[in-house]
């Protein structure tokens, strides 16, 4: 059986580790296959793996991001204008696409992800490329993500601004959409458990995969919320979930 683990809200909050998460992951890795799937697209894979290593988790070759999923939706040789950082650049180039800085130079695709440097100029250039004929792909549509200071605007908020300015509906790659579903099934097969803190993202992702959904209360969703879809398992944390398996 495979375990598909979210990162933000399950393993850490921002850069702060969630108590017991590293030990819980190690216990799962001793018994089953583990893959980490995140809608955060900004970091390159090596940096995602290094961050996990700093939290005491070995994850080499075990990370899937919404950037890698988004790259599945482009064709080799296409010219791609990126709003979202080096993780998307890396995924596009690995797919055989060409990352371009000039939004007026025959752009085929605009990919939008989370970027703290997002401003009006980025919005103007991205929307202009889409209005000129480029396809709009979003790495994810999460409106927020958890930080130690509370919820911050997520990549979905940025994507919504670009889509509104361009007057189009984007194709979204990350959880719970088909591109990342295909990526995960190709890696781990058709049986497993998704552990996450967002029913609308992680829960829907589990349903799309045909996996069980384990909801933890260490991120966006509290014990007082009414989750939809209804999780198969509810736990206070990843640590308590894994402890209940023994």
Features:
246 residues; alpha/beta; Rossmann fold; 2 domains; 9 helices; globular
Mean pLDDT: 96
User: What structural category characterises the helix and strand content?
Assistant: alpha/beta
| Order of helix and strand elements from N to C terminus | EEEHEHEHEHEEHEEEHEHEHEEH
Helix content: 25-40%
Number of strands: 15
Give the end-to-end Cα distance, rounded to a whole number of Å.
16 Å
- Per DSSP, what share of the residues sits in E-state strands of 2 or more residues? 15-25%
Rounded to an integer, what's the Rg over CA atoms? 18 Å
Query: What is the global morphology?
Result: globular
Low-confidence stretches: none
The CATH H-level superfamily of the largest domain is HAD superfamily/HAD-like
Number of helices: 9
Kindly describe this structure.
There is one protein chain. This protein starts with a strand and ends with a helix. It has helices spanning 21-31, 45-54, 66-71, 86-95, 120-131, 155-166, 178-188, 199-209, 238-243; strands spanning 2-5, 12-13, 16-17, 33-38, 63-65, 79-83, 98-100, 109-112, 135-138, 144-147, 150-153, 171-172, 192-196, 212-216, 233-235. The model has no long low-confidence stretch (mean pLDDT 96). The chain is an alpha/beta fold and 246 residues long. Helix content is 36%, strand content 23%. The chain folds into two domains: 2-67 and 175-243, Rossmann fold, CATH 3.40.50.1000; 75-172, 3-Layer(aba) Sandwich (Rossmann fold), CATH 3.40.50.
